[in-house]
Amino acid sequence: MKMSKKSKVVLYILLTIVAVYFLAPFLYMLLTTFKTEGEAIAYPPSLFPKEWHFENYSEAWASQPFGTYFLNSVIVTVMTTLGTVLSSSLVAYGFARFKFKGKNILFMILLATMMIPWDVTMIPQYMEFNLFGWINTLLPLIVPTWFGSAYNIFLMRQFLMGIPKDYEEAARLDGANSFQIYWKIFMPILKPCLIMVGVLNMLTVWNDYLGPLIFLQDRTKYTLALGLASFKGVHTTAIIPMLCITVVMIIPPILVFIFAQKYIVEGTSGSIK
Amino acid sequence: MKRKLAVVCIMMLSATTILSGCGGSSDDSSSGGKTKIRFATWDVAEDVDKQQELVDKFNEEHDDIEVTLEAYGSDFDTKISAGMGSGDTPDVMYMWNYPAYYDGLEPLDDYIAEEGDEYKSNFYNTLWDYNMMDGSTYGIPVGFTTHCLFYNKDIFDEAGVEYPTADWTWDDLQAAAKTISEKTDAKGFSFQMKPDPYDFEMYLWSNGTSYCDENGEMDGYINSEESQEVFQMFQDMEKDEYATSTEGDGTDEFRAGSTAMYVYGSWAINTLNEDGVNYGVTTIPAFADAGQDSVSILSSSGLSMSKDSEHKDAAWEFIKYWTNEECNKARIGTELPVLNTVVESEGIMEQEEYAPFYTMLEQSQGHTPASFLIDSWSEVAENLQLSFEQIFNPSSLQPVDKALESAVQ
Amino acid sequence: MKKKKFLKTATPYFFILPWIIGFLVFTFGPLLLSLIMSFFDWPLTGEKVFVGLGNYIEMFTQDDQVLKSLGISLRYAAIFVPLNLILALFLAMLITQPLRGVKVYRAIFYIPAAISSVAISIIWSWILNSDYGVLNYLLSLIGIEGPDWLVDPAWAIFAVILASAFGVGTMMLIFYTDMKNISTEIYEAASIDGAGPARKFFSITLPIITPTLLFNLITSIISSFQQVTLVMLLTGGGPLQSTYFYGLMTYNNAFKHHKMGYASANAWVMFIIILLLTALVFKSSSAWVFYESEVKADNKKKKRGGK
After folding, report:
1. Mutating which of C9, C151, C242, C262 best tests the B interface, going by the most B Cβ atoms within 10 A?
2. Do A132 and B267 touch (CB under 8 A)?
3. Which chain B residues touch C44 with a CB distance below 8 Å?
4. What domains appear along chain B, each with residue ranges and CATH number?
5. pLDDT at res. B2
6. From the CA of A144, how many Å to the nearest CA of chain C?
7. Residue B86: closest CA among chain A residues belongs to which residue?
8. Which of A241, B62, B156, C284 is the most exposed place for a label (fewest CB within 10 A)?
């Protein structure tokens, strides 16, 4: 597609305006991580630190066992992402490509499970996991995702419903069974969507702190997000270390995103609509 | 035909079983012959490291008990609520909000009695009142803070005003605040726009009234003349622009040098020392007409035991350790010591940033916070907080009598 | 023969089986218990007393806050949902443009979504603080006196919206993935027919992405009603309870006032409201959502490009 020079300029201007809105607070935070706490709250605010305190990062990292937290976060994120992508795509396929009795009711129930706020189901859930002996393990965070998450199922169903019927009809004429069609035809078509779901899920899990807060107890089991939240005390907040860890925590999701971008774009070559 | 589907299902199931296999065993509360005690704290960052060292020391000294530290920071309440609601409370936990949680806590009076009179009397006496509910003791004091007046010496010097002293009244403070606001860039005084009602009652006490009578009846107390005077004074300071109401607790504004005075607990000391702020601490000014010293609220922390704990003796062993002299000493800098002997031996009263908090403690005997008197205090407090904010928020500045009248309803 | 038929009917259930198991094991029990709790006076510890519909009656006859908070949440949803959708669509359009360096912009737009909500709320409360915040400081440099964002009840909800729009990257990515699936041939064909960018957007892009639009619409309705973390940390429900969202009220009833039964009733009322809204959206969706898989065979060719 070709574009006129004028519209290109307009686009760049638009992109830059939005980029400033998104980037400015982040850059402000980034610059703050190199300041002393006194400087960070001074008024009038300064943009650049008077002295660059690079050691803020190493001090923040050393203040809690973040190596362990990092490992736990990686385990939880990888395991849940694998689990939810596999199971949710199966279920989404079932909902999107078949007609069966009770489908609409079941689907409404699926959607409804997203609508109950966690505050009231949390205590019953805690009791259940306590019964299983899963409290203070990573299991309550991982295992349920292997049975599909409503959000991801719904999302993938929407994508699957957007694929024309003749795809499976042709394959069915060739004698393929439903699972083969799911695995050999739809999974490849859905690749960009699966990767996107993986990326989004990774982000949610990586930053989730309510789940870990409730189900984990001692520091050997903590995740990064929980370590981050525990800089915030009842009366005082260790603000600089907190922002340092925030910056460090952004790096993996961004790297994954940049890496995944390529595969999402590759969807174009096999565009299906 | 369904082979592959079956394979996937089996994979998922086996993954689940393997996972639950690794998790299942960690539930035993006494493995390897050791009694396991869970201990929950609200402290954060470096304070947790210090606590961990003390816990490690306890574990080394005891072959039969193993304590694990759980640090929840600002989410402490959510976590304890979840634990209590599902019957899985930590064995030992920090506690301050007894009215909300005492149902789930073990009364400790028998344990205390067994230790003898001397054990009990070594703690500052006022602190016991704050760790009791309906006549039973539910916590052993570990730390406390009263509130004091913090002032920035540099700003006072710049304005040429004498430093605040223990015999100041609010009139003196107002005069100083006016001069400071005129002569420097800073505001003379700051207070919270949305104060915690629990804390704010101390001003009413200082002016000879309270939120309610001993049955929790508020009418005629919170809307009394003495009470209105207090709110009016703060509101006037704000209206006349030599004081400002802060969005947070005021520490940040004080650190940044944009206010010269504020009233707060000992929590700020470490931060201010780290920043190198040139500050002083003294007692809260008195109300000139009240004919009494100023009074402070006590924010006390105690150590409590869960009612459902399966190892109460071991838990008590640990509570005793955590509240003994050695630990009191080790935690100076995190918490103000609560044992007479420690305050004496460490010369706390000679340290000018700590001493005023103990003076306030002595001046504050004999008051019971409304939270202990009013049923469902947390809901009442939410209402009160809204009324107070209506009085102090610069975008509303509601008349005091009207706002307090609506607080009674 | 019979076996084959059974397999045919059973197949779809095999696919959705994982979710059914997960629902029964992990979700149904807690859900049911929370419903039961809503008929009890259920303190954290101690005696639970059955009160029938008492909690629900109390909500609508004695507790003024319920309707107030509901109003606040509805107003927030009414602003936030369309704003977020439009912004996400707009950004997704921008980052699908074949421009040099667009990859970098894509990553930039995504960064805020990767920041944890705890940190987001801290940064924004700094930026928006009326006394020493950097935003009002910058405004003062150009001679504008900024509003008291987090102090003035009239402005606080905008502060929350400003901060929550920061997470738009998620929705943007969903739209973007969907748009990337549209073959360029359709656009080229339209260009030959002389269609401008606006025309192309409204008659090609928009109809094709309606399934994901529906998804984003529904999930953002749900999330705007469930907004708790950000408000709790940014405004704490203030100033003067102007951002005391329904979700925050529920949370406070559960974890501050320890009224688990009452909080459950709050939650179930909210659940019904969201459910009704969702059902409404779904009902209307047959008129505006366009699924390729439901297109009749004969007009398929016309509407669809690509393979």
Report:
1. C151
2. no
3. 81, 84-85, 101, 103-104
4. 34-145+299-363 (3.40.190.10), 147-297+375-408 (3.40.190.10)
5. 44
6. 6
7. A127
8. C284
Is residue B41 exposed (0-12), middle (13-18) or buried (19+ Cβ within 10 Å)?
Answer: buried
| pLDDT at B29 > cutoff 80 | no
| Contact by Cβ (8 Å): B147, B369 | no
Q: Percent of chain B having pLDDT more than 70?
A: 92
Going from N- to C-terminal start, the domains of chain C cover 64-294
Any A CB within 8 A of B8 CB: yes
CATH superfamily of A62-270: MetI-like (1.10.3720.10)
B255:A214 CB<8 A: no
Can you tell me the distance from the alpha carbon of B408 to that of B227, in angstroms, rounded to the nearest whole number?
A: 12
Sheet holding B279-282, edge to edge: B243-246, B189-192, B261-265, B147-152, B279-282
Higher-scoring residue by pLDDT: A237, B336:
B336
- Report chain C residues whose CB lies below 8 A from the CB of A164: 292-293, 295, 300, 304
Spell out the domain ranges in chain A: 62-270
Q: What is the per-residue pLDDT across C266-278, written as a single tens digit (0 to 9) for each?
A: 999 999 999 999 9
Q: Which amino acid is at B170?
A: W
Whether residue C177 contacts residue A193, with contact meaning beta carbons closer than 8 Å, is answered with yes
Per-residue pLDDT of A62-101, as tens digits, reads: 888 999 999 999 999 999 999 999 999 999 999 998 889 9
C64-294 topology per CATH: MetI-like fold (1.10.3720)
B193 contacts chain C (CB < 8 A): yes
Distance from CA of residue B262 to its chain's centroid? 17
pLDDT band at C218 (very low <50, low <70, confident <90, very high): very high
Residue C135, pLDDT above cutoff 90: no
Task: For residue C258, give the nearest of B81, B256, B396 by CB distance.
Answer: B81
